[in-house]
Amino acid sequence: MKMRYSLIPSRAVGDCRLTHGAFRTLASLCLFTSINGICFPNQTTLADIRGVRRPVVTQQLNQLRMYGYVVDLEPVGKKHPKGFKRGNRYFVPTFEQDQPPPLEIIRFDDPGDYRRPPYVYL
Question: What range does the domain containing 93 cover?
Answer without folding.
Answer: 10-114
